[in-house]
Design goal:
The chain is of the alpha+beta class. A three-stranded antiparallel β-sheet has the order 1-3-2. 16% of the residues are buried.
Length: 76
């Protein structure tokens, strides 16, 4: 189940700038930046796009990827 804090942070991101950097995305997901980079290189992480020279992740894509990878417990 999504915590209130996560929902609030996601909503703030949508209202201000829905595109997060790779470092912000890794922090949001609670994983190491290098893990996210490796996942991107192997085509296994959240959808992302190259804006200039910086990889950006849209908050909706991050949340969709995260929800698609839920395991166990109750979710709904």
């Amino acid at each position: 189940m999504e915590t209130d804090d996560t929902a609030v942070r996601a909503q703030k991101a949508r209202e201000t700038c829905p595109f997060l950097t790779a470092k912000q995305t890794a922090y949001h997901l609670g994983i190491a930046y290098l893990t996210l980079k490796s996942m991107r290189e192997r085509g296994r992480g959240p959808r992302c796009r190259l804006h200039g020279t910086t990889w950006r992740y849209h908050i909706d894509d991050i949340e969709a990827w995260s929800k698609a990878h839920m395991r166990g417990g109750q979710h709904g």
